[in-house]
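Interim report, section 4.2 (structural modelling).
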Amino acid sequence: MSSQLWALAVVGIVVLAAACLEIFRSRRARLKSVGATAEPANEPYILYFTGDGCTVCRTHQEPALARLGPVRIDKVDAIAERTLADRFHVYTLPTTVVMSPEGRALNVNYGYAAAPKLERQLAAARGARIQAATA
Amino acid sequence: MPASAPHLTSLRGGAGNYVDHSALKVNQTGIVTTVLVAFIGSALYRPLLVLIPLLAVVLLLGTFAPQLALFKQLYFKVLKPRGIVKPRRVQDRPEPHNFAQGLGGVFLAVASVFLLPVPVIGLALALLVAVLAFVNLAFGYCLGCQIYFQLGKRGLIRT
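Predicted structure of the assembly:
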């Protein structure tokens, strides 16, 4: 039984270390990519990085994007458009980036981002735009 | 792409391939169950550890010859025809899933090598495969598929 307990402890430590590494990696990538630029638009929009082999993109992310109100969403193949993907430090799929109308990254979500989270980020982007216009 | 999302632009690739995700779920359930039986059962009856190398063989065979994939065949030949598990076809590619299954098989093969001389390492590796299969089963996150994406991005494999 002691082998089983030791193995359980080893796996627990590995999972914990992997979770910490993932948090560190996504924070570092987010810090580097916020402010990166893409095409300007009239309204805040979303860059949606996906790929042929991304299952979560089809089963979770795309239904969540479909639930959003009228917003421009640019779907990007992260492998075909590697330069653009590298600019936003895309290391996992899906990745969604909320862009300002000037084409600057405001929020970067690595992994699945639920519709309410994207709605909040878009609302903040629209609010910032109105504030800037009235100031 | 769902028809209810007309605002999506710049659509690229991916059309035409479908994968039955119920077959994948049955496969993942089989992996988790077998590893757990071997892991817990071996505490009481040590020969049950043989399930781990057997599972490695099943996964590796299934990666290269899908008709030999035991759990998927159980789904296609028994569970699906009898209506026990309903099919769920999703627009997807089978390659990343096959890659993930092969990776699981390799890890279990390495685990099998360690089972007798250093059982802690062997059991830990097997349990790790079960944890990742469970994460895929419950949350849809496939680590093997992400590794496949990273290798494709670096041009190490053709995606």
